[in-house]
Amino acid sequence: MKKQTRAIHTRFQSPDAYNSLSMPVYHTAAYEFDNANVMADAFCGRSSAPDYSRVTNPTVIYFENKIKDLTGAKDVIAFSSGMAAISNSLMAVAGAGKNIVTSRHMFGNTYALITSTLSRFGVGARLCDLTDLAEVEKTVDENSCCIYLEIITNPQMEVADLRALAEIAHRHNIPLIADTTAIPFTEFDSHALGVDIEIVSSTKYLSGGATSIGGLVIDYGTCEGFGKRMRSEMLLNLGAYMTPHAAYMQTLGLENLDARYRIQSANTQALAERLRTLPAIRRVNYVGLPDNPYHDLARSQFGPTAGAMLTIDLADRDACFSFINNLRLIRRATNLFDNRSLAIHPASTIFGPFTDEQRRDMDILDTTIRLSIGLEDVDDLFDDIRQALQES
Ligand SMILES: *Cc1c(COP(=O)(O)O)cnc(C)c1O
C-alpha cells in the first residue's frame, strides 16, 4: 500500500479493550504487572511490556510505529521537542575529546547546543562549509564522532550533497546525522541518500496547526550501538520522551500531513514565483525556483517539492520591520509549517542573542524576512505581502 494509506491505517500494537477506532491516549505514568517475573522481564528489556512512561507509552509507540512503517527505519523514538531529539542523539554519539563536524548554517539553538552547551562537556565543534567537500574531508579527524547537517538550512537555504557527505562519513566510520525538518520524510528516502540517523522537529509539518512540540529520531540501524544506547540509556537518564498527549495530536497531524504538505508546498512555489515581480523585494530565496543555486541538487535529493519556507530580502532592517508591522493576514510568529502563514525577522529574533560577528559568520542578514507558507489562498497571501510592502 502507498504511504498515505499506511499513514492512516497502522494497527495498534495490541487490541484495545473497547475497540476504539482512533488510538486511545494512555495518560498514565506507570503500568501494573501480574507477577515479579513479568515485571523483571519488562524492566530488563526481555519483553516489550511498558513499565514507565518516561521510557515507553502505548500512545507514543503507536505514533513511532506509524513513522517506522513510513520510513522503513529500524527504530523511531519520539521526543518532547526537536531540540530534545537533537541533544539526545548528539549526546549518544559524542563524548569528551570527540568532535562534531558541522556547518555555521543551522538552526540557532542547535548551533548554540553544539558550540556552547556541548563544548562545556569537552565535545568540540569543527565548523566548515559542508558544500565544499575538500574542506569537509580536511575537517574530519580521528576524533570526529559524526557529520551533522540540516538538509535545507534555516534561514540560509543551503543544500549539501548528502551522498557525498555520507561517503566521507562512512569512510571515517562515523554516522551522517541529518535534520530533515525542512521536507517531510514522506517525500524522499534519506537513508537511500546515505543518512544514518534522521532527526525531525515534529513541531513543524507533523503537528499540523502548531498543536504541540515534538521531535523524532529516525534510526536506520547503520550506526553501531546507537539504537540500544538511545533506548536503554538516553531515554532513561535524560528523560525527554514525548508525552502521550503530544503523540496523539501528532498522530492526527501525520494522518493528514500529505494533504497539507501538497497545498503548502504548491502555495510556496507559486508565491515565490510571484514575489519576484515586486520591485521592493531584492531577492527571493527558495530552492524550488529553477535558477536557485541549489535547485538541481535539491530536486535530485528531495523530489519535486521544495518545502514551505522561503526568505525574501528587502532594502534594510527598517524596511523589514515596517513590512512585518504592516502585515494583516500573515502572522508575526516564529515556528514553521503551521496551517497559517507566518513571518519573522530572524536576525532580531531567533538570532538576536548572538553577537554581530556570530551573525556574520552564520550569514544571518539584517535584510532577510523568513516566511512559512500555510494553507491560505495564494492570492490572499500575495495581496497581503504587496500591501505590507506598500506597493500597489
Ligand atoms: C524548529 C527546528 C528545530 C527545533 O525544534 P523544536 O521542536 O522547536 O525543539 C530544529 N531544527 C530545525 C531545522 C527547526 O526548524
From TrEMBL:
This is PLP-dependent transferase. One of its GO terms (molecular function) is pyridoxal phosphate binding. It comes from the Bacteria. Gene3D superfamilies: Aspartate Aminotransferase, domain 1, Type I PLP-dependent aspartate aminotransferase-like (Major domain). Transmembrane segments: none annotated. One of its GO terms (biological process) is transsulfuration. Belongs to the trans-sulfuration enzymes family. Its cofactor is pyridoxal 5'-phosphate. GO terms for cellular component: cytoplasm. Keywords: Pyridoxal phosphate, Transferase. The modification N6-(pyridoxal phosphate)lysine is found at K204.
